[in-house]
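Hi R.,

Here's the chain you asked about this morning:
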Amino acid sequence: MSSTTDHLRTKINQETALFPWSELLKHFASGNVLAIAPDLDLVEIALHMANDNAAEIQSLLSTGRLYKVSDEQAKVWLENELELWTVVVKPWILVQHRAS
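And here is the predicted structure, written out as tokens:
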């Protein structure tokens, strides 16, 4: 693994944060929020996106493990006042709900 990849992975890891869904609604309304399956590694998916690994991203999209948040899902998260792990990979905000 290259030092550039290690550096980027560290940077992404340091930029992850737990945010209330209510604070992400404006980004959701803009269509900039993607959710990832709870069993995936948020940092690794963000790294694939930052490196423009189209094959991996397409595979995740086609299997539904990376997806645009639906209106129904957004409503449930808002009603339950959920906090989600987030990281920004412009122009996207990746979110992940991990059951406690």
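One quick note: The radius of gyration is 13 Å.

Cheers,
M.
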